[in-house]
C-alpha cells in the first residue's frame, strides 16, 4: 500500500516538472525554449544597462564641461545644435541600443504569455517575464496594459497547472 501511494504521488508530480515518460519531450518544451531565449535577452539587456548609465553620465559631464568652458557662448542656433548633437551622440547610441535590447525582451515576453503553461517549469518561465516587466516600472504608463497581460497569463498558468495536479 505504501509503495502504491508513493508511485501515485510520483506520477502526479511528474507533470509539474517534466515529461510524463522518459524519452518524451517536456510538456512545456516550446515555452522552455522561449524562456532560455528570454533569459539570454534579459542578460544582454542587464549587461548593457551599465553602459547606458555610463554614457548618460559621460554626456552630462561633457555638457557641463562644455558649458563651463564657454563653448556654447556666442553660438548661433545652428552651431549650438551641432555642438549639442556632437556631445549627445554617444548617449543617443547607447539609448538606441537599450531600446533594441528591451524590445527583444518584450517580443519574447509576448510570445511567452501567449502559451498556456502545462507544468511548474512553464509557470517559472512566465514568472521570469512577470519579474522582468515589474522591474521596468520606471517606464511610461503605456506599458501597464502589457504588465497586466503578463500578470493575467501568470495567474492563469498557475491555476491551469494547479487544476491538473
- End-to-end separation in angstroms reads 21 Å
Helix share bin: over 70%
Unreliable segments (pLDDT under 50, ≥5 consecutive)? 6-14
Number of strands: 0
Order of helices and strands: HHHHH
Task: Note the total helix count.
Answer: 5
What does the average pLDDT come to? 80
Q: What profile does the largest beta sheet have?
A: none
Provide the β-strand percentage band. Answer: under 5%
* Rg (CA only): 24 Å
Number of domains: 1
Structural class: mainly alpha
Shape: rod-shaped
Q: Could you characterize the architecture of this molecule?
A:
With 165 residues, the protein is mostly helical. It is 78% helix and 0% strand. The longest helix has 40 residues, at 29-68. The radius of gyration is 24 Å and the shape is rod-shaped.
Give a short synopsis of this structure:
Residues 1-22 form the signal peptide. Keywords: Signal. The protein has helices at 2-17, 29-68, 77-113, 120-134, 144-164.
List keywords for this structure.
165 residues
Helices and strands in order:
Elements: H1 2-17, H2 29-68, H3 77-113, H4 120-134, H5 144-164
Amino acid at each position: 500500500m505504501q509503495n502504491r501511494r508513493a508511485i501515485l504521488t510520483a506520477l502526479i508530480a511528474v507533470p509539474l516538472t517534466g515529461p510524463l515518460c522518459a524519452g518524451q519531450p517536456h510538456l512545456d518544451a516550446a515555452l522552455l525554449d522561449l524562456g532560455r531565449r528570454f533569459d539570454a535577452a534579459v542578460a544582454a539587456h542587464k549587461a548593457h544597462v551599465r553602459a547606458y548609465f555610463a554614457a548618460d553620465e559621460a554626456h552630462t559631464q561633457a555638457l557641463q564641461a562644455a558649458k563651463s568652458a564657454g563653448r556654447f557662448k556666442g553660438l548661433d542656433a545652428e552651431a549650438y545644435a551641432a555642438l549639442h548633437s556632437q556631445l549627445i551622440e554617444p548617449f543617443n547610441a547607447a539609448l538606441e541600443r537599450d531600446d533594441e535590447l528591451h524590445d527583444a525582451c518584450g517580443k519574447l515576453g509576448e510570445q511567452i504569455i501567449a502559451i498556456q503553461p502545462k507544468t511548474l517549469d512553464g509557470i517559472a518561465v512566465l514568472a521570469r517575464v512577470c519579474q522582468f516587466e515589474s522591474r521596468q516600472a520606471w517606464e511610461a504608463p503605456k506599458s501597464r496594459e502589457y504588465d497586466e497581460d503578463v500578470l493575467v497569463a501568470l495567474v492563469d498558468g498557475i491555476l491551469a497547472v494547479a487544476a491538473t495536479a
